[in-house]
């Protein structure tokens, strides 16, 4: 179920509020382009700036639009274990296929604390968990050994790995086995990640270029790496440009160039400067999107 191109959806805003019309159009565009799954309310969805009611309205709206056509993985993580349990419970109630649970940020838990956090969520809610390891944002890194221990929990099915360390794919295959779902959390490494044994990417770039990202994933999963490399060559400047300023600022700017949503963000995020905008536009032209 969880493989291929899984889009980490932006949350479009209009005059400070969630733009539900634009969101519906974005979701429909994703499905029409061949995206294999959707991830609302991750970091790319600016989840730290949405109220709890807004957060789960976005998840509910996504599920309603999708209507079972692709799996929806709801962002449910928190640096409070009790809050994460409540979020996971709400995601199950709404009908999400899984929860994306980020490692606790700011608290800086130990490896033992990380395990206990995921164990508590696992034991409290009957919903699959995809662990999100992103030390660049959370400060803590889930070690391979701790990930293997977490993977032994009954509802933990995989990982979104945003460490950028391609050796982890092989290490986790060795420690856990090939059935553990390994998803890249970095677009630029997605091709190589799958070559090492990964099965997909939770992608920011797929907001802007959903068809190309889906085609790249399908090519890698079918072993057609020359075809995938040709697509990667088209996408590489875009992968780079979308992270030249804090995400999802560049992605929203790119979507605004396509007329799909405003480039509006919530503080503390602000839009990219003119130099970054020029890079985004050039990358979109390179990919054939403009």
Topology:
Layout: E1 4-8, E2 13-14, E3 17-18, H1 20-32, E4 37-39, H2 52-66, E5 73-75, H3 81-94, E6 98-102, H4 111-124, E7 129-133, H5 135-138, H6 144-151, E8 156-161, H7 167-175, E9 181-184, H8 190-195, E10 200-203, H9 210-221, H10 225-241, H11 249-257, H12 274-286
Parallel strand pairs: 1-4, 1-10, 5-6, 6-7, 7-8, 8-9, 9-10
Antiparallel strand pairs: 2-3
What's a quick, concise take on this entry?
With 290 residues, the chain is an alpha/beta fold.
Description:
The protein has helices at 20-32, 52-66, 81-94, 111-124, 135-138, 144-151, 167-175, 190-195, 210-221, 225-241, 249-257, 274-286, and strands at 4-8, 13-14, 17-18, 37-39, 73-75, 98-102, 129-133, 156-161, 181-184, 200-203. The model has no long low-confidence stretch (mean pLDDT 98). The protein is globular. An 8-stranded parallel β-sheet has the order 4-1-10-9-8-7-6-5. The protein has a two-stranded antiparallel ribbon with strand order 2-3. It is built from 12 helices and 10 strands. It is of the alpha/beta class and 290 residues long.
Series of H and E elements:
EEEHEHEHEHEHHEHEHEHHHH
Gyration radius (Cα, Å) is 18 Å
Estimated structural class: alpha/beta
Mean of the pLDDT scores?
98
- What fraction strand? 5-15%
Total count of helical runs of at least 4 residues: 12
Characterize the quaternary organization of these chains.
single chain
Spatial gap, N to C terminus: 32 Å
Low-pLDDT residue intervals, each spanning 5 or more residues: none
Strand segment tally: 10
* Overall spatial form: globular
- Biggest beta sheet summary: 8 strands, parallel
Percent in helix: 40-55%
